[in-house]
Structure formats: C-alpha cells, structure tokens
Amino acid sequence: MLKSTFLKAVAATALSFSTWASAQAVDLQFYFPVAVGGKAAETIQELTNGYIAQNPGVNIDAVYAGSYQDTVAKAITASRGGNPPQLSVILSVDMFTLIDEDLIIPFDDYLTTDEDKKWVEGFYPAFMENSQTGGKTYGIPFQRSTPVLYWNKEAFKEAGLDPDVAPETWDEMVDFGKKLTKRDASGNVTQWGVRIPSSGFPYWLFQGLAIENGAILANADGNKTNFDDPKVVEALQFLVDLSTKNEVMAPGIIEWGATPKAFFEGQTAMMWTSTGNLTNVRSNAPFDFGVAMLPAKETRGAPTGGGNFYLFKGASDEQSKAAVEFVKWITAPEQAAKWTIATGYVAPRAETWDTETMKAYTAEFAPALVARDQLEFAKAELSTYQNQRVTGLFNDALASAITGKKDPATALKEAQEQADKILAEYR
Fold first, then answer.
1. Pairing of strands 87-91, 305-312
2. Residue 101 resides in a domain
3. Residue range(s) defining the domain that contains residue 72
4. Does one domain contain both 355 and 406?
5. What are the residues facing 349 on neighbouring strands?
6. Could you tell me if 214 and 359 lie in one domain?
7. The domain spanning residue 105 has which CATH number?
8. Are 31 and 89 in contact (CB under 8 A)?
9. Which of 6, 95, 157, 347 could form a disulfide with 340 if both were Cys (CB 3.0 to 4.6 A apart)?
10. What pTM did the predictor assign?
11. Of 15-24, 171-180, 189-198, 306-315, where does mean pLDDT reach its minimum?
C-alpha cells in the first residue's frame, strides 16, 4: 500500500513538473525564405530541429514563407494584424523598410556585454553594411551571398580557350563570349557566350557592373540614389551592348529562375548568378565547371545579397532573448559550415572558414572560396527607404533600356527624378 502510494506521488510530481516545464517553454515562430535551388529549406528545418533537441525549453515553428518577396509581405501583414513572427530571415535590403514600418527592434537591446559586441564584430564588414544604420544593428547576416561568374570548362575547351581561366575584365568577357557563341547552319544561336539575368531583381546583378565601373547606386543612409551617374549609364550601356552590339548574350529580358537550367543544358557557356546556387550547380551540371569573381572594369566589385535575421516587435522579452540565442547558435561555426556546404551561401563569419569541416570542404571544392574572397571588393546591395518602390523604379529603367524602349541615359535620368521625389522626406 505504501509502495503504491509512493509511486502515485512520484507520478503526480513528474506530471506536475512536466506541466510546469511546458508552461515555462518559450514558443517562437520563425519565417524563412528560399530563393535558390538546393537543400535550403530542408537544411533550415534540420538545424532548427537540432536546436530544439538541445534546448527542450524552446519550441520553434520554422515556417517556409516562399520567396524573399513573399516572406517580407507575410511578415508585414502578420505584424499589422497583431500576430508577428518573433524572428524572420528577410532580405538585408529591406532593413530600412522594416524600420520605417516600425516592425523591428535592434539586436543591440539584447547584445549588451563586451562578448556580445565582439560577436557582432566577427561578421564580415561587407555584410554589415546592409545590417546596421544609425549606430544600431538591426540585421544579423545569415543567408548571404554575392553574385559570381560560372563557366562551362568543356565549352571553353571546345572554343579554344583555356578551360581553367575565366575572363578577368569586361573586354575579356566580350572576347570570350564571341568565341563561345555558337550558331547552326541557319544562323540561329545554339549557345550564347554569357547570360546575365534581368528579371526578378535585375538591379542586383546589374549592380555588379556599376560597382566595377566605380559607381555606388545609393548612399549608406538609404535616402539618396545615384541612378543617373554617368558611370551607371556607361554600365547599363555595356549590358545592352552585350546583346545588341557584341551579340554574345540573348536579347531582351533574361529570366533569373531559368538561368541555371540554361547553363546545365548548354544554352550558355557563362552565367552570372548567386553563390547561393553553388550547390545546385555542383549537383546538376553535367560537365566540369569553374567559378570566378565577376570581371573588372575600373576595379573588381560585386554587391552583397541575401537575407538577415530580424527581431520583430510584439514579442515578449523571453521570446526575444530566446530568438537571439537561436541566432547566435545557428550562425556559429559548425552550424554555419553545414548551411554553407548544403546551399552555397557564404558563411558570414571568418571563424567558420577556419573549422576543420570547412577546410576539408574547400580543399576538395575550391570554388566555395570565391565568394568569400570577393567580399574584399564587395559593396552594400542597393537599399533605401521605400525600398520596393525605389528599386522597382530602377528595375523598370533597366528593363526599358534592355528591351530598347529607351536609351540608358534617358531611362536612368527618369528613374532618378522619381526616386528623388520618394526619398526627399527622408533627408
């Protein structure tokens, strides 16, 4: 009888503890996007599950929210509806929009120790350009990238080019492209020399050309653009000339999403796309390929890209603290290494590249180092207040020049005038 009573008491105590622990658990909702091929969504879920297993007091609902555009729209809608996520990965360039909408809080509120500040300083400076403003850190780099040039080594060899040497300058890219462009007996192109996508977010890849030509599209405060800078006009004219004058790239708008497939199928011998496509290309290219920094004009250069972690208003103090701890964990070396290897995104902290995991990976697959090394020449991705409106104007200007509706100078002058009207109130 005593034994039975004792066991019942133990069971009741265990149940009571379980109920208490459950009551004390912190629940987080975490939105994340996937913008490229590969195992991004699967890897995010695996990492999140791993954290939950190590931290039984934290429940994280990782919600795949679609594209970057879908994710920011859902986060804003949920916030306005009074049900924001506590944490989300959203494009780094949406930082000013999220601040303007009063939806996010700076990480600094929860990073107060010297150790915390040292941790923030451990991220690559090029990535932090789109993560900090006004002396505060609003974004923590995670799903970050730069555009790089991929080339088909077999196509290079067939064209009489050194298969291990990529074009280093604009002129070389044109020269290589002419050798690589193939036509059938009827004059129809069966393989283009190069493919630079101009749909979806055309400003991003174009920004590589602008930076290489010595131009910066917007200031660091997000309230002034330089769309009509003569160097920007020159860069856009070069992009148009790849099709109209040099005939090394297909005319018209080139689809972002179809570009890797076109590369795999031999429709283009070179392509510009995100390093976030690296694992996708490695898994699916039926030929030996190379990866290089974008070719230079006045200088090497590329924009950074991809998403940051953001903390949303409306969370409890416990939820925000738990979210910060999760961000610290998932950006730590071993987790970041797993993410980079699975996707091709650039590990955002130098310490990750020093792990044995990454050393072994890059020793066996050196192209993974290209985007990291290009960070030395990288600049902040175009980002302003009212970012979607402003970049929309710029994208429209690019499209009108690419399709021949307007000359580059006129298209960019009009875009600058409209951007000035939008951004005047933020100066």
1. antiparallel
2. yes
3. 26-145+305-370
4. no
5. 123
6. no
7. 3.40.190.10
8. yes
9. 347
10. 0.86
11. 15-24
